[in-house]
């Protein structure tokens, strides 16, 4: 009854979602992905790396209830709202945005399914093939697919070391690609 007056924790949760999303974006923008693995430093290449990191967080919180389930939904909303804003910044008009958003949603959820299947099966080759198919589909060989798959597996392990309470409080740590190369 008085939620509108006193709030229901939305501002606090929004701050947590913003913090988590900023960490996802910062991790996806690590220069090593673009310099060493030759991920294209283009809007589509950045979308791919953002999708990989966003997938990792969603994979970590899947099947969770309560605050983490709410945060996962709000992160997903934030991801697609950010994508919508990006399309508009590229000059896509109001009539073209919904069609492109539908295409990007289909692309993202397809990636989510293939990455989940490979990660759950502990199949590095399947993950490397899925990454190659999505990130550089026109190249016959891409030497970065295997190292990126290794990174995803290690990043997944590191995310599983973060407690649910830490995540619900907005604490998220990704391993850096440089750390992974040196291990």
UniProtKB/TrEMBL annotation:
Pfam families found in the cross-reference section: Ubiq_cyt_C_chap (PF03981)
InterPro entries: Ubiq_cyt_c_chap, Ubiqinol_cyt_c_chaperone_CPB3, Ubq_cyt-c_CBP3-rel
Region forming the signal peptide: none
Residues covered by the Ubiquinol-cytochrome c chaperone domain: 35-174
Source taxon at top rank: Bacteria
Family according to the record: Belongs to the CBP3 family.
Protein name: Ubiquinol-cytochrome c chaperone
């Amino acid at each position: 009854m008085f939620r509108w007056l006193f709030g229901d924790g939305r501002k606090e949760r929004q701050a947590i979602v913003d913090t988590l999303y900023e960490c996802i974006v910062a991790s996806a923008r690590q220069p090593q992905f673009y310099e060493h693995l030759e991920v294209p430093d283009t809007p589509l290449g950045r979308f791919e790396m953002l999708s990989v990191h966003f997938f990792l967080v969603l994979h970590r919180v899947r099947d969770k209830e309560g605050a983490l389930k709410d945060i996962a939904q709000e992160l997903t909303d934030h991801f697609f709202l950010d994508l919508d804003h990006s399309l508009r910044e590229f000059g896509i008009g109001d009539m073209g945005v919904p069609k492109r958003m539908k295409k990007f949603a289909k692309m993202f959820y397809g990636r989510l399914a293939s990455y989940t299947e490979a990660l759950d099966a502990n199949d590095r080759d399947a993950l490397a093939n899925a990454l190659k198919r999505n990130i550089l589909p026109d190249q016959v060989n891409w030497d970065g697919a295997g190292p990126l798959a290794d990174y995803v597996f290690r990043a997944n392990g590191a995310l599983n070391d973060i407690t649910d309470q830490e995540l619900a409080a907005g604490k998220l740590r990704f391993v850096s690609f440089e750390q992974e190369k040196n291990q």
